[in-house]
Amino acid sequence: MTELQALKLKALDATTNGIIITDTAANIVWANAATAEMTGWELDELVGQNVRVLRSGMHAPEVYKDLWETI
């Protein structure tokens, strides 16, 4: 890892915004500490899970449909 890459990773992990990186199948490959704080999940529990585990059940299915069509 280059010095610049390490600096970028440090910045992503230090932000108070939750950040999740997924693969093309929506499986979580990386998440920052803020994500763990916001969700109550441990980072090692999140990695490998599909982002569906974070659904709150408080939104209509159309919200998720629109989200996935957008991304």
Characterization of this structure:
It is built from four helices and two strands, in the order αββααα. With about 70 residues, the protein is mostly helical. A two-stranded antiparallel ribbon has the order 1-2. The model has no long low-confidence stretch (mean pLDDT about 90).
- Assign the structural class, choosing from mainly alpha, mainly beta, alpha/beta, alpha+beta, or little secondary structure: mainly alpha
User: Unreliable runs, pLDDT <50, ≥5 residues?
Assistant: none
Q: Describe the biggest sheet?
A: 2 strands, antiparallel
The number of helical elements comes to: 4
Main β-sheet, spatial strand arrangement: 1-2
Percent in helix? 40-55%
Radius of gyration: 14 Å
* Amino-to-carboxy terminus distance: 28 Å
Strand content: 5-15%
Strand elements, count: 2
Question: What's the overall average pLDDT, rounded?
Answer: 91
Question: Shape, please?
Answer: globular
| N-to-C order of helices and strands | HEEHHH
Furnish the topology, listing elements before pairings:
Elements: H1 3-14, E1 20-22, E2 28-31, H2 33-39, H3 43-46, H4 61-70
Antiparallel strand pairs: 1-2
Gist?
This protein is mainly alpha-helical and 71 residues long. It has helices at residues 3-14, 33-39, 43-46, 61-70; strands at 20-22, 28-31.
Question: Any key phrases for this structure?
Answer:
single chain; 71 residues; mainly alpha; two-stranded antiparallel sheet; 4 helices; 2 strands; 46% helix; 10% strand
